[in-house]
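Weekly modeling sync, notes
Attendees: S.R. (lead), two postdocs, one rotation student

Agenda item 3: backlog of single-chain predictions. S.R. asked that every request posted to the team notebook include the full sequence so nobody has to chase files. The rotation student volunteered to paste the first one in as an example of the format we agreed on. Action items at the bottom.

Example entry:
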Amino acid sequence: MNSFIKVLTLAALFTLATMSGAVKAEQKLGVVNVQEVLQALPQVAVIEQNIQAEFADQIQEVQRLRSDGNFLLEKLQREKATMSADQIKDIEGQVNTLGQQLQAKGQPLQENMQRRTEEERRKLFALIQQSINAIADKEGFDMVLNSNAVPFSAEKFDISQKVLDQVSKIN
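Predicted structure, as returned to the notebook:
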């Protein structure tokens, strides 16, 4: 019976040793700061320029409306004391009309520019994800996490620069 317990104990120790060896097999982990990569991409500046060019006429119109409104307000403040009630009422009406036009044109412009920016950002996020996948496959990573989701990670796990380099090469 003693030999049976010894054999069973030895078998259990052997099993634990092999299991702990399997558990201790290193997993290769990486972290990437996706927001930092996105902000550092040269494509972001190009996208901003393209969107500004795409909406240039509308931007100029909104700026003109603002400028005209500001001019009339300043004129009203400067010359109010010497103006008649009809002149003041006329300028105030013009300012209100310009304000309404500015609201009618400015808000949709802002929404359209924001929508286009988000469309382009989604494309960049897709490129970042492709780059992460390619690096993970090439270098044998078992898992790559967004650094914003990890409270702490050592610098050696950060692959953000590799991802940035890869995405920058794409375009």
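Discussion: group reviewed the output briefly. Residues 85-139 form the longest helix (55 residues).
Action items: rotation student to repeat for the remaining queue; S.R. to check formatting next week.
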